[in-house]
Amino acid sequence: MPAWLTRQQALIDFTLASLARRKLKNLGLLLVYTLIVFLLASVMLFGHALRREAAAVLKDSPEVIIQRMVAGRHDLIPPGYLDRLGHIRGVQSQQGRLWGYYYDPVVKANYTVMVPGPDAASPVATGRVVVGAAMARARGLAPGNLISLRAYSGRLFSFTVADVLDHDSELVSADLVLMTEADFRAFFEITAGHYTDIVLSVANPQEVRNVAAKISAALPDSRPILRDEVLRTYESVFNWREGIVLVLLAGALLAFAIFAWEKASGLSAEEKREIGILKAIGWETGDVLKMKFWEGALVSLTAFLLGYVAAYLHVFHFASALFEPVLKGWAVLYPRFELTPAVDGLQVATLFFFTVFPYTVATTVPIWRAAITDPDAAMRG
Amino acid sequence: MIELLNVRKAYNQGRSNEFWALDGIDLVVERGRMTAFRGPSGSGKTTLLTLVGCLARPTSGRVRLDGRDISGLPERFLTQIRRRTFGFVFQQFNLIQGLSARDNIMLPAYPLGGDGRALRERAEELLVALRLGHRGDARVEWLSGGEQQRVAIARALINDPEVVIADEPTANLDSALAREFLAIVEGLKDQGKTILLSSHDPLVTEAGMVDRVHSLRDGRLVTAG
Q1: Measured between CB atoms, which of B96, B114, B115 is closest to A277?
Q2: Which residue of B has its CA nearest to A380?
């Protein structure tokens, strides 16, 4: 083994023996440090995974959604709009959608009621509905059960549950109720030719903004919503929620920063004396600094690794139990979903830089002053 | 051979509390001999040993080790010379509390980066040679005064230095332990090591194995015996 390596090994051995002298104090520090990394890493991992999930879901969403606005409010699309959109150059296809919200007083929750598209994976038959997993849980439904819903008009409708939607899609389908167009129109009393909104596909993705501008000109009371804008909105929502959690954590972070700085940078008289002894018996200033570097690096690296692994398990195996209400948002029908494990290298590097680096520096730098004192100080007691 | 030529050492030079600890020392220390420095407190014994042992540099004058002038070397080179050539036994023993006797003994060897197993074997040999074989794992603060001094001696010997420097080695020991210390250093002298001691304990300065005794007063050598 090269001398350099054996020297580092010897210094690490000594550092470990030295740390073991104040077991309780150092274990306490390690525990708090690990907890901080765990909290930060959990927020970062959860936010990142959620963003990826949202991006994956929205990848297949329509490029443009057209809504009609009346007095600044979203209103139904009247007949004729579909045809007019078809004449705008660049529009490849257009399709009217029917969807709405229904408040179920039984479970005090809102459902999203939708008519599936013509190429939907879950086609439904008249008098039958397909429901989301969270709704099925809330109402205790299984395929074959009958469900009665009182429409806003006061009429009572009964549907047979044809199927419960797959658990994999629960993030977007937790509160979904799918029914036929005829059932939907009868339930919400929407006459034929009216739609909730229209989805468009555009032949050339580069032209989406131009097409949107043409639509705004042709149908001034309509509002085109682009997929990119939706993605950006989601991004902002997640960032905002992450921000809230980080603000809540800020107090704890600050307390830790003060505690760690105090612990790492404050040199006790005993430590100064020890440095003097080490220098007197043949250690160079550089050896003392290396030893202190290893002390800081070992504590912070261990805390980083333990905290990060714990955060990974927390987010991807225990469904972020600690932050769920803040980061997922509030809902009566909570989707149950498992995030796909995703680790962002840049995020890991950022967290590493802001946790390991400052502590190591805080441990090493103040030693400099003590380490350059004359070694004969030890001789003088 | 160690030579000191008109060595002077000042503390707080240029300030109102300037103090000359050594003032014109000319001295030759022969290899393989035991040399003792005696004198009252503040006479400059410890300062003299720090200059010889490369723990500090003289304000003026020359310190030569085997003919090589080491008085002007930068700290880094002085450290290298110090850890290979000199072993120190301090008056307060200066052991690191909380560490075992074995860890304390191995400390001076860590920066050298030698083979770990060989180092542990050497530490074990020293523990046994100094009758500390059963105390290797004990934390140093649990040891008696005599045991602590033997750990300090073992630590001074771990890098197999040519010169052992002991500053007031018997100041904290009773007569029996002081004699035990002298017996140990006599053994070291027999192995060919150069021994430098500072003491105002007659038990040390008048011991038969001491080859030369130098008296210091007010930073000057007054007699040589």
Answers
A1: B96
A2: B46
Share of chain A above pLDDT 70, in %: 90
End-to-end CA distance of chain B: 19
> pLDDT by residue (tens digit) across A166-204?
766 666 678 889 999 999 999 999 999 999 999 988 888
Q: Which of A168, A198, A227 is the last residue of a domain?
A: A227
Among A370, A286, A296, residue whose Cα is nearest residue B111:
A286
Range of the domain at A171: 62-227
- With H, G, I as helix, E, B as strand and everything else as coil, classify residue A99: strand
Separation between Cα atoms, residue B130 and residue B101, nearest integer Å:
12
Contacts of B79 in chain A (CB under 8 A): 279, 282-284, 375
Does pLDDT of B225 surpass 60?
no
Q: Does the structure show a pLDDT above 90 at B87? A: yes
Among A11, A280, A284, beta carbon nearest to B94: A280
CATH 3.40.920.10 fits B2-224, yes or no: no
pLDDT at residue A335 greater than cutoff 70: no
Distance of alpha carbon A360 from alpha carbon A297, whole angstroms? 5
Same domain, yes or no: A51 and A186: no
Which residue among A198, A227, A256 closes a domain?
Answer: A227
Among A8-22, A98-112, A311-325, top mean pLDDT goes to A98-112
Residues A98 and A30 placed together within one structural domain of the fold: no
Q: Are residues A101 and A244 in the same domain?
A: no
> Residue A98: which of A161, A219, A221, A180 has the closest Cα?
A180
Short-list A330, A263, A351, A289, CA closest to A41 = A351
**B76:A375 CB<8 A:** no
State whether A284 and B90 contact (CB < 8 Å). Answer: no
Q: What is the DSSP string of A263-330?
A: HHHPPPHHHHHHHHHHHHTT--HHHHHHHHHHHHHHHHHHHHHHHHHHHHHHHHTSTTTTTHHHHH--
Interface test with B, best of A281, A287, A288 (most B CBs within 10 A): A281
Number of domains, chain A: 2
Q: For residue B50, give how far its alpha carbon lies from the nearest alpha carbon of chain A (Å).
A: 6
Angle between helices A227-265 and A345-371 (to 10 degrees): 20
Going from the C-alpha of B11 to that of each of A163, A229, A232, B134, B218, the distances in angstroms are 92, 74, 70, 44, 14
pLDDT digits (tens, 9 = 90+) for B119-171: 899 999 999 988 899 999 999 999 998 899 999 999 999 999 999 999 988 88
Paired sense of beta strands B212-217 and B220-224, if any: antiparallel
